[in-house]
Design a protein that fits this description.
Elements lengths: L2 E3 L2 E2 L21 E3 L2 E6 L13 E4 L5 E8 L4 H12 L12 H8 L3 H13 L3 E5 L3 E7 H8 L3 E6 L2 E6 L4 E3 L6 E5 L8 E2 L46 H7 L11 E7 L5 H11 L10 E4 L7 H4 L5 H14 L4 E7 L4 H13 L5 E4 L1 E4 L5 H17 L2 E5 L7 H4 L5 E2 L7 E10 L5 E6 L1 E6 L13 E5 L3 E7 L10 H4 L7 E4 L2 E4 L6 E8 L5 E9 L1 H18 L9 H7 L6 E2 L11 E7 L9 E7 L20 E2 L1 H9 L3
Parallel strand pairs: 1-13, 14-16, 14-17, 15-16, 17-19, 19-21, 21-27
Antiparallel strand pairs: 1-18, 2-29, 3-4, 4-11, 5-9, 6-8, 6-12, 7-8, 9-10, 18-20, 21-22, 23-24, 23-32, 25-26, 28-29, 30-33, 31-32
Length: 648
């Protein structure tokens, strides 16, 4: 299953690259297969694209497969119930977290279950290649897999390619239904992640052209045409930590004694140098010895297929943004071996199994249509195991608005649509003189370019280029914490009984009001040097919210916030806690002027002038109250402090 990182660079247009992440169910129980009382079906294991019309015939019996049988544990229902109870401020169990060891002992698979699963798989002719707390990995030929999982494997057309998949829903022997959660790997369609950004690989330098505003509105584009009835400001050079901390009510909190983890694929070889240099140059507290850690796999795979170098900028943004807002927090970067979901799941599991942090920032995802229920179950199990330990996961909501222009279908991103994670939407942020918060709009950009005679913006306001992801899930039922807050029209957009709506909360994302980041890049003369540029996307919003949560955890006396959604929604409507973000806060329309180097480096290739409208997010709108661009809003001055008012 694929996922994509949600980051947008400050270049002429924003792109969203696919990455398969988890589909969202609250757990997928086994159910008896029709006409086969001796076996139990594993719902969701036959992909929706494996149709009779697309069937190209049986896969060769000798073809090889690699699969994972995910373990249900000894009390899947109890795990979900406990995860809810410890996360709900109204529950007597709120905040009564378990240690990683106790969580595994209470909810993990027993030795007997693991032994039974291994015995069944080997008896079918498959070879066990790995056993973890979460799954049993196997390899073997198609004939053995068909015997083990009670289904034929056929080849199916999917787009312009052909992939293997189960012709019927996979199943397990009836005696194992309580031991097996699901199986992945029976289909061999790409289940990978790609980063959703405009960042060229670090071997190609990128710079922003000026003029810039140093704070919102500080420099007016007086020589350029009007927009919305008047002169507009130049885009800012890029906000820094001091400005973001002021905008989101950091106060004196710094995230002291709070641990944040960041997951991405691969790892930047210059992250320590870049992060250290950036902090010193931009007024952040210097990194202390041992404050930044990396937890990396022994080997990387699929580096060319996944574009490994392109992930370096994502890690750089995430690490620098977290430190800028929560400069005292301990940061652990957990790199996946590849951009495939199996490896990303391993990284998330590593955080949970070793309790590496209480707060986990994740700037990747894919469209909901690409999610598969088998991986959904595996992802949600990890999120639930995290919740019972007091670990909260934050996922970017995507950078293509309602996704209609990008994918052809209005849909949300995954795993941001999970009922067990906090989905982070995006805003355009105006921080004024003296680091004062002015306003925010929902992030949505329409772009028009300067006419040849320089007297008008061609086709103003222009076409939609990028915006915060959001909307109503087609697959995930409405979680209890959204009821009474999310408008009924949104919740019931795809289902009369109500579904999950994304996002939950929001922060700065628009690259035109974006964040300054520093990274080592290769210049045309072959030298590698540190350079800075402006960046945005909900890939920025996610680490910013994760950092704000670190401040809130410090305010709460260090007690972990855990899965934060129930508490976030419980605070909705309380005075001074959230900025209620709307698309046109000034009433006159908003835009900034951008100047870009045509070659991404200097003026030798010419300059490109454009106007970027703010608050124009596809069919989505940031309105008064909860909305599907910014959720409950962005953290206001009272948000962090609200956790100090009542310590748990």
């Amino acid at each position: 299953m694929r996922s994509n990182r949600a980051k947008t660079r400050a270049v002429s247009m924003a792109a969203t690259l696919p990455m398969i992440a988890g589909a969202l169910a609250l757990g997928i129980p086994a159910a008896h297969a029709a006409g086969s009382p001796a076996r139990d079906a594993l719902k969701g294991t036959k992909p929706v694209w494996a149709t009779a019309k697309a069937d190209k015939g049986a896969t060769s019996n000798s073809a090889q497969i690699n699969a994972r049988v995910y373990l249900a544990g000894k009390d899947a229902a109890g795990l979900a119930a406990y995860a809810k109870a410890v996360s709900d401020p109204s529950s007597p169990l709120y905040g009564k977290y378990l240690s990683a060891k106790k969580a595994q002992a209470r909810f993990g698979a027993t030795k007997a279950q693991v032994a039974a699963v291994k015995s069944w798989l080997t008896a079918s002719g498959l070879k066990v290649t790995a056993v973890t707390a979460h799954y049993v990995a196997v390899s073997g030929d198609v004939a053995a897999a068909e015997k083990a999982f009670g289904t034929q494997l056929h080849n199916f057309a999917k787009g312009s390619a052909t992939y293997r998949a189960p012709a019927q829903t996979a199943s397990v022997p009836a005696g194992l239904q309580d031991a097996v959660l699901t199986v992945t790997g029976l289909d061999n369609a790409p289940h990978k992640s790609n980063h959703d950004d405009q960042l060229p690989p670090p071997d190609a330098v990128f710079k922003n052209a000026g003029p810039f505003s140093s704070y919102y509105g500080s420099k007016t584009a007086s020589s350029l045409p009007d927009a919305y009835g008047g002169k507009i400001p130049y885009a800012i050079k890029g906000y820094t930590g001091k400005q973001l901390r002021a905008a989101y009510g950091a106060g004196t909190y710094t995230g002291k004694n709070v641990r944040i983890a960041i997951t991405d694929a691969y790892a930047s070889p210059t992250i320590a140098l870049d992060a250290g240099t950036y902090a010193v140059k931009n007024g952040d507290a210097a990194w202390k010895t041992g404050q930044l850690h990396q937890s990396l796999p022994a080997n990387y795979t699929k580096t060319k297929e996944c574009g490994a170098a392109g992930w370096y900028g994502e890690e750089t943004l995430d690490v620098e943004a977290v430190h800028a807002v929560a400069p005292s927090a301990d940061v652990t970067y957990v790199g996946a071996a590849s951009c495939y979901d199996a490896d990303l799941l391993d990284s998330l599991s590593k955080v949970v199994d070793n309790h590496l942090a209480d707060i986990v920032s994740n700037s990747w995802g894919d469209v909901e249509a690409n999610q598969t229920p088998d991986l959904a179950a595996a992802y949600d199990q990890v999120f639930q195991l995290g919740a019972v330990q007091g670990i909260g996961f934050y996922f970017s909501s995507g950078d293509d608005g309602d996704q209609a222009a990008k994918s052809g279908t209005k849909q949300v991103d995954t795993p941001a649509n999970s009922a067990w994670v906090t989905a982070v939407g995006g805003t355009s942020l105006a921080v004024g003189k003296g680091d004062t918060y002015q306003w925010e709009t929902g992030w949505g950009t329409e772009k028009a370019t300067l006419s040849a005679d320089g007297k008008s913006w061609q086709g103003f306001p222009g076409a939609f280029t990028s915006g915060a992801g959001g909307g109503t899930s087609k697959n995930v039922p409405q979680p209890y914490y959204q009821k009474g807050v999310v408008p009924k029209a949104l919740a019931t957009a795809n289902n009369a009984t109500g579904n999950r709506v994304v996002p939950d909360i929001a922060a700065i994302a628009d690259p035109n009001t974006g964040f300054l980041v520093g990274q080592t890049q290769t210049f045309p003369d072959g030298t590698e040097r540190y350079s800075e540029y402006r960046i945005g996307g909900t890939s920025l919003a996610a680490p910013v919210i994760a950092a704000v949560q670190a401040l809130a955890q410090e305010a709460q006396g260090g007690k972990a916030l855990g899965f934060a959604n129930p508490a976030i929604y419980a605070k909705y409507g309380k005075k001074g806690v959230f900025h209620d973000v709307t698309d046109n806060p000034t009433g006159s329309g908003l835009a900034v002027a951008r100047v870009d180097f045509a070659n991404g480096l200097n003026a030798s290739g010419g300059l490109l002038y454009s106007v970027r409208s703010l608050g124009k997010d596809s069919s989505l709108s940031a309105v008064k109250g909860y909305d599907d661009v910014t959720g409950v809003g962005s953290p206001a001055d009272g948000y962090v402090q609200s956790y100090a008012a009542k310590k748990h």
